[in-house]
Amino acid sequence: MSLPDNSVWTRVEVGLNALAVDPVGLGGLWLRARSGPVRDRVTEALGGLPLPLKRLHPSIGDDQLFGSIDLTATLSSGKLVERAGILAQPAVLVLPMAERTQPGLAARLAGALDQGTGHCLIALDEGAEPGETLPEALTDRLALHVDLDALPWGETDRIVLDQAALAEARDRLPGIRASGKVLEDLTLLAVRLGVHSLRAPMLTLRTARALAAIAGSDEVGVDDLKAAVELVLAPRATQFPEAEDDQPPEQPPDQPPPEPEPEKGEQDEGEGQSLDDLPLQDILLEAARATLPADLLAMLAAKRANRGGGGNSGAGAKRKGNRRGRPIPSRRGRLETGARLDVISTLRAAAPWQTIRKQESRFERSLHIRSDDFRIKRFEEKSDRLLIFVVDASGSAAMTRLAEAKGAVELLLAEAYARRDHVALVAFRGEGAELLLPPTRSLVQTKRRLAALPGGGGTPLAAGLKVALEVAIQSKGRGMTPTVALLTDGRANIALDGSANRTLAGEDAERMATAIRLQGFPSMVIDMGQRPERSLKALADTLGAPYIPLPRADANRLSSAVSAALDA
């Protein structure tokens, strides 16, 4: 089978037919599309797959997946009654909001697919940004990858699966043969496309076998492989494949020249030839190139940048507790101060042991619960991120640097409402430093404080870092995730005691930088001088922070540099 054209919707239709023939072998479909009528046309066709549909939730628990004790039936009957989980029977698992899948759930679903128990996963990825995507543990196991975000409604059509033809193809599938060279060529092609997973060429071959079964063939052909490459390998490509040198190698002088090949008229191209005789890798490479988007490099760069920030560039660290946040599975624990008992999970843990405990107990009780059965509720929340700007307000050029810092703070704060960022401002000059702007998200208050920011005097760098450390410790105690951004253009010349001693000032600054690093606070050093300063590079190394030289930086460049450093 070959794709009649190179449209996205054609690949969707052909991919769904292949998935209906071999849903377990292909693993499933990663469908990246926002909720809407275009995606609905794909989900409506899922009813034609030869397995029942079961809908999951990104925060589904192990009890629903693998089964658990039916507490109501167990207590009423006095016997252990178990309830089967979703994974107990083969099914098509439909996972909406798949971009929110936690690593734990991704690992469990990946394990279910690897066990070959008859499951097929349809991941509906609704991510709005390139970094909001399905975990790699699942994308690696799903053969078909389709992106419908840019597909208009007018280029789609209703998908109808021919159940009779697909049933015949499923019966024919076990007898489909493939040449021994095919898997080797697919593996080499995957390397040239930058696909380093060994599952990818194997899934491509499985897809080609399914397409050959649909076409009524007994052996995988070139058209089947070309269509499979467009469906499986091309969407996984991470680089443009470079053409190899087509010139033949030079013959040694002692060997006779090769015999001339027959003219095209003597033998029709491809007629009577097997896959072993054809330049299969080059043919499949051209098929993959025709499917690759023109802006592949830009798309990959955007994905890498967002992946560096974990897909949540504005969120702080994850914290687990027992009071508030998103519920996560409860764990065994003690009833200490502040702990909240998960009654249902506790009863489920105690139910299997009731018969034994009643026989061993000397007291007549309807329910025997021990401390080992206690399950404590747990929650997970993401803390707000705090950007602490430590600005050098000393010297004759202070007003220029302060104006740049003011603009950068205002630009970053304008995005704080969507990114959940707070901003604090520490200025150091003269003999000390002061906190001019406590942690805030108020744009009005920020502009008012920035307007009266003073400048001039020496460079008490250690004092600025000390105030920043104090603010970071306080904000961490309030549940925030602080990050220190140091903006300066020169070396420290005022020590912590206020004396004008450059050597002592440098030592004090190094001690404060070491203290910030030991506390685990991320930071960055932005050198705004006309020339890079070696001492600031050494200070960045002490902080374990990136060193960013930005001579004559304006507010936009400064804001972009800070955002890029935070996401990296």
Topology summary:
Layout: H1 8-21, H2 23-26, E1 28-32, H3 37-45, E2 53-55, H4 62-66, E3 68-69, H5 71-77, E4 82-83, E5 92-95, H6 103-114, E6 120-125, H7 136-139, E7 144-147, H8 163-172, H9 180-192, H10 199-215, H11 222-233, H12 280-291, H13 296-308, E8 315-321, E9 326-332, H14 343-350, H15 354-360, E10 375-392, H16 398-414, H17 416-419, E11 421-429, E12 432-440, H18 443-451, H19 461-477, E13 481-488, H20 502-518, E14 523-527, H21 534-543, E15 547-549, H22 555-567
Parallel strand pairs: 1-6, 1-7, 2-5, 5-6, 10-11, 10-13, 13-14, 14-15
Antiparallel strand pairs: 3-4, 8-10, 9-10, 11-12
Domain VWFA: 386-566
Pfam family, one: VWA_2
Pathway: Porphyrin-containing compound metabolism; bacteriochlorophyll biosynthesis
Number of strands: 15
CATH A-level architecture of the largest domain: 3-Layer(aba) Sandwich
What's the shape? flat
Q: Which spans have pLDDT < 50 for at least 5 consecutive residues?
A: 243-254, 262-273, 297-315
- N-C termini distance: 44 Å
Reported for the largest beta sheet, the result is:
8 strands, mixed
Structural class: alpha/beta
CATH topology of the largest domain: Rossmann fold
Q: Radius of gyration over alpha carbons?
A: 32 Å
Find the CATH superfamily of the largest domain. P-loop containing nucleotide triphosphate hydrolases
